[in-house]
Amino acid sequence: MSPHDRAEEDGPETLVSLDPRTGEVVGRHPVHGPDEVAAVVREARSAGEWWAGLGFAGRARRLADWRRLLVRRLDELAALVCAETGKPLDDARLELVMVVDHLHWAARNAERVLRRRRVPSGLLMYNHVASLEYLPLGVVGVIGPWNYPAFTPMGSIAYALAAGNAVVFKPSELTPGVGEWLAASFAEVVPEQPVFSVVTGFGPTGAALCRSDVDKIAFTGSTATGKRVMAACAENLTPVLIECGGKDALIVDEDADLDAAAEAALWGAMSNAGQTCVGVERVYVVEPLADRFVELLVARAAGLRPGGEPGADLGPITMPAQVDVIRRHVCDALDGGARAVVGSRDSVRPPYVEPVVLVDAPEDSPAVAEETFGPVVVVNRVSDVDEAVRRVNASGYGLGGAVFSRSRGAELARRVRAGMVAVNSVLSFVAVPALPFGGVGDSGFGRIHGEDGLREFARAQAVTRRRFAAVLHPMTFDRGSRTVRRLVRLVRLLHGR
Ligand code: NAD
């Protein structure tokens, strides 16, 4: 039963979140309509002014308090993440460890990145002081997915708060409890004003947030929804940050450490039951190494078991509708000539999917071309890395990627059309707070995390201050007839050669 069905059963104003492992009710939440969303945004606006007024140091202190609270109650939140997503306990804990690290980085670096700084004033305006500052936008609306219900939205929330904004968060309808927990815990350390609030509901609640008086929307979810979000935001010229899906690939070069590549490919493809935007969904391995690589991958994959117990290797498919997508991708690939070296059509047993490794799948099959979002990986052989790079870049998506190569990892990484690339590992870029995160093409645009992620939630303001009267002042009706001619002569001298 999906949360939609449950909402209808309980009446239109209630959203019920369920444990995907058992179907048990985890919590009930209101479905907020446009008026309620508008009211929350209105309150957030004045809260944001208060929050901005605390300055970098005041905010950093509060965010540090929140960080300590999250650490103290990490297991409580991890249990809720497990209940709403079904993921294994240690995966939920790992997700929260990364949340804490990012929150720490954002709070610690906001002032350095955003504060007013002097910049050179240049030839024409040498008599001015020029400075640049990144000011808060006001209220940032964050719309999140369910697969990493704390880590993914916190990539926007923590950075937007550190930059001095209020935040209104619309969590996924599958994980509303995690969203509410985050906002409630923040309110414990910042009780004065609703600086970080949550609205719950389905797509229409997200759409209402897009059409509300927010100053920016940070959306993370599917490409199809991302386009709807952009269209709604266009009505008010509300700026958007769009973090969408991917079809990330791992390239195995001739001199790769094969054992390490197989281990990483397996984790990249199967952890979180493949429900990772930067999960490894395709592997391109050069021909001479292909058989050995597949052997190593199969040996490792054979031991993995999905299940609902805390220590399982992978949990269930959180969103019931995704099971059909996964089944279609596996069956289409097999019908098109691919071989399953791990698993089979029967591996899809809702709510669980056992690991599936497909080899030699047609490049135009959905398992290679579309986001699968399940524990399924395609391994295709290529004649050389140039062919691998061509195939990787043939995708409309361009989120992350990985390259295994001893001698030319950095060179290959540069050739991959993606926002992030890991060399000789997978997914590592998500855990480096200083690195920006985001994609190109169908994977979206804009960046969370790092300095770019802080600036994403701020508006650059340029200020010039005149210090003294210039000898040559061309921007006045009182300028002499020779002023501009002298300037042109000067420019010819300086820049014309
Ligand atoms: P989704 O697009 O179905 O939903 C995402 C959010 O958008 C939910 O909160 C949903 O209620 C809301 N929404 C739905 N319709 C809306 C509308 N018309 N207007 C505004 N909001 C609306 O995605 P999902 O199934 O929750 O998440 C899975 C997808 O997210 C995958 O494609 C995955 O790759 C992607 N993802 C991307 C990243 C990233 O950082 N790039 C991270 C995690 C997940």
UniProtKB/TrEMBL annotation:
GO terms for molecular function: oxidoreductase activity, acting on the aldehyde or oxo group of donors, NAD or NADP as acceptor. The keyword Translocase does not apply. The active site is at E243, C277. It comes from the Bacteria. InterPro entries: Ald_DH/histidinol_DH (IPR016161), Ald_DH_C (IPR016163), Ald_DH_CS_GLU (IPR029510), Ald_DH_N (IPR016162), Aldehyde_DH_dom (IPR015590), Aldehyde_DH_NAD(P) (IPR012394). Gene3D superfamilies: Aldehyde Dehydrogenase, Chain A, domain 1, Aldehyde Dehydrogenase, Chain A, domain 2. Residues 11-463 form the Aldehyde dehydrogenase domain. GO terms for biological process: aldehyde metabolic process. CDD domains: ALDH_DDALDH. The keyword Cytoplasm does not apply. Pfam families: Aldedh. Keywords: Oxidoreductase. Residues 1-31 are annotated as: Disordered. Belongs to the aldehyde dehydrogenase family. This is Aldehyde dehydrogenase. The lineage of its organism: Bacteria, Bacillati, Actinomycetota, Actinomycetes, Pseudonocardiales.
